[in-house]
Amino acid sequence: MGRAAWVRRAPKAEISRRIIVSATDQPTLPAPRPSGPRRLGLSGKLLLLTIPLVMIALLMIYVPSIANFWTNRLNDRLAAANTAALVLDAAPLGMVPDSLARQILTSVGARAVAIKMGQQRRLLASADLPPAIDRDIDMRTLTVWSAIVESFETMLERGNQTIRVVGPAPGGAQFIEVVIDEKPLRLAMYRFSSNLLLVSLGIAMLAAGLVYLALHYLFVRPMRRLTANLVGFHENPESAARIIVPSQRSDEIGVVERELSDMQRDLVSMLSQKSRLAALGLAVSKINHDLRNLLASSQLLSDQLASVPDPRVQRFAPKLMRSLERAIDFCQSTLSYGRAQEAEPDRRLILVEPVVTEVRESAGLAADASITWINAIERGLSIDADPDQLFRVLLNLVRNAVQALDSRPKGDTATLQIRITGRREGSVAIIEVSDTGPGVPAKTREHLFEAFQTSGRPGGSGLGLAIAAELVRAHGGDIHLVEGTIGATFRVSIPDRPVELLSVRNERARA
């Protein structure tokens, strides 16, 4: 069993890796909706709805009121004319002086009063009669609709027309007639209209205000509360503090609040569970990635043991191979939750060259003559870092370089080379890992150090650079792709930790 055996087992690991990737996929959040011009809220719409309703109510009150006023005004004239007719009819013929007749007509507000008894029409009194009558109004046959029409015609007329009003007469008379001017009636209707409109408007505005406040407190405010809660919950749906607290209402709004609270609580629980599963998937994938690299190194050593002619070694070598296979399968299984973040680096001042040598051996490049290894580390270069985490960073970069060189076309005769350099610039240690491979595809550079986003080869997970970037950032350093080089060159910069002068002096004093 050699490299070929590892390649044959790769599809199974790849299937498990794809399952983990699908478990950690997060739904894409919708882009924020552009806010258009501010529109009227429920209060504004309620106010705009209340105003025309108040106007309609005023109109419904005013129309029959003005018609009733017009009718009563004419009936009053007829009643006064009946009283005057009794006085004038009781006097002997021709015994009523003209001055008294004028006073009676003035008190009645008429120009003439006539009465019909049998077949005879008798003019009881008259003063300044016009040559013609403009309108006739018979109060005996007046209907509600005709009263409304006649009243508005009176208000819309101009000038001073003459109206003859006919109504029932007391005693044995058939009817009584009174001739009046239209202008005084019109002016009285205008005054009544203004007074009625002012009073009705005040009452209607008071009623509308009360209705508006009642609807505002009963419906608009609860709807605003629901709206504000939905907007806040949309901004952070994983926060339990954004769950609405239902009120004690027993109507439909109370039911909506309780159902919304239950739905938000279920959604928060579901999102929390999915976040934990996503973090678990990421943790498993990261552990699996590094553990698989370590197991690959162990397999290279087991291949060398398989070539030893010792019978005992030959007997135990297959068992070792199967154990490695079980370990590879086991690293794909679910691990305990809570280790999604890397541990804090245990930093100390170490030499870089021994770590680089260990990386070369673990990557299997010490015995691989097909890839040229160039070590250009400055002699005695030290770095303030966690040795295990620095090893993982360099091993991931070197393995990516090896895989990039292996992906080159078969007919490509260019030199396969991995070069690692190290130097110090002031208080910053810089390590570069470069290869002569095809380089990083342009489409993967935007998400170069994001998990499951940057793999440019079949079977890759894109976790190597993500893990390396996370470990470097934990040291306060930086990792990036160097532009304008042959193949791909990754530069790792790790600064030394700041040293307190007092502690250094104390250490020197103790020494």
**Average pLDDT:** 76
Going across the major beta sheet, what is the strand order?
A: 2-1-5-4-3
| Multimer state | single chain
Biggest beta-sheet profile = 5 strands, mixed
Shape: rod-shaped
Q: Based on helices, strands and strand pairing, what is the structural class?
A: alpha+beta
- Write down the secondary-structure element order: HHHEEEHEEHHHEHEEHEEHEEH
Q: How many individual helices?
A: 11
User: Gyration radius, to the nearest Å?
Assistant: 52 Å
**Share of residues in strands:** 5-15%
- Termini gap: 55 Å
**DSSP strand count:** 12
Q: How much helical structure, as a percent, in the residues?
A: 40-55%
Low-pLDDT runs: 1-32, 332-340
What does this structure look like?
The chain has 511 residues and is an alpha+beta fold. It is 54% helix and 14% strand. The chain contains 11 helices and 12 strands. A hairpin with a 2-residue loop joins strand 1 and strand 2. It is rod-shaped and about 160 Å long. The chain starts with a helix and ends with a helix.
Give a concise summary.
The chain has 511 residues and is α+β, with helices and mostly antiparallel strands. It contains eleven helices and twelve strands.
Topology record:
Elements: H1 3-24, H2 42-90, H3 98-108, E1 112-117, E2 120-126, E3 135-138, H4 144-156, E4 162-167, E5 175-181, H5 182-235, H6 252-306, H7 311-330, E6 348-351, H8 352-362, E7 372-377, E8 382-385, H9 387-406, E9 417-425, E10 428-435, H10 463-474, E11 478-481, E12 488-495, H11 501-510
Helix pairs in contact: 1-6, 2-3, 2-4, 2-5, 6-7, 8-9, 9-10
